[in-house]
Design brief:
By secondary structure, this protein is α+β, with helices and mostly antiparallel strands. The chain has helices at 105-115, 144-161, and strands spanning 6-8, 15-17, 22-27, 42-47, 58-60, 62-67, 80-86, 90-94, 100-104, 119-127, 131-138, 168-171, 187-189. Strands 1-2-7-6 form a 4-stranded antiparallel beta sheet, with no helix packed on it. Strands 12-11-10-13 form a 4-stranded mixed beta sheet, covered by helices on one side. It has a 3-stranded antiparallel beta sheet with strand order 3-4-5, with no helix packed on it. The radius of gyration is 21 Å and the shape is elongated.
């Protein structure tokens, strides 16, 4: 998204930002800035070098620690970062007692990949009251209803293991698609749940 984001410090091997090409904002889960030295939940990237299709505050789920350049001690005053990796999205289900159960999108992704061999693309969307919308694009030669039935049966077993007994899984009329930012998300929760 941002081409060459950093360059390595030859003295201390830190990753200094190429801030003449881009802006990196370290933010919390709500998009508020986090102070230098504190682990972010995600980052916003603004690409200053792409005039044709600029990215402005493009959300990336990498967690970073943004540090002031003088902390490096090499003489390069540019900010530098420690990259901690991607933060999983936690989906918020409820159990039979209406108690919240958080399940990582990574865990759901692993389950979906066990049964999605007949689909080219899929999206798992969690709505209020454990309503699960599945958007599927089957591979050529496979029926969408057959693929849906297999995925639904597998998910029912997975939800039961996680103490989620009240839910509704349905096949969407919509095909899998990109969100407003241009990203394709396989698994996500609708805002306001």
């Amino acid at each position: 998204e941002g081409a060459s984001i950093t360059h390595e410090c030859l003295q201390n091997h830190h990753q200094h930002l190429n801030d003449d090409w881009l802006i990196i904002e370290a933010v919390d889960a709500d998009g508020n800035p986090v102070p230098y030295g504190q682990l972010s939940h995600k980052v916003f990237l603004t690409n200053l070098s792409n005039f044709t299709q600029p990215l402005i505050r493009y959300e990336i789920t990498d967690r970073v620690i943004l540090r002031e350049g003088k902390e490096c001690g090499c003489g390069d005053e540019r900010l530098w970062i420690d990259v901690e990796g991607r933060s999983p999205v936690l989906l918020q289900f409820t159990d039979e007692n209406n108690k919240q159960i958080d399940i990582s999108s990574i865990s759901i992704s692993m389950e979906m990949h066990k049964v999605c061999e007949k689909t080219e693309l899929y999206q798992f969307i969690l709505h209020q009251n454990n309503e699960i919308e599945l958007r599927l694009k089957p591979l050529a030669g496979y029926e969408i209803q057959t693929a849906f039935a297999e995925i639904k049966e597998h998910l029912e077993g997975y939800l039961k293991k996680n103490h989620i007994v009240t839910y509704h899984i349905y096949l969407s009329d919509e095909a899998p698609g990109f969100d407003k930012s241009g990203k394709f998300k396989e698994i996500f929760q609708e805002t306001g749940v």
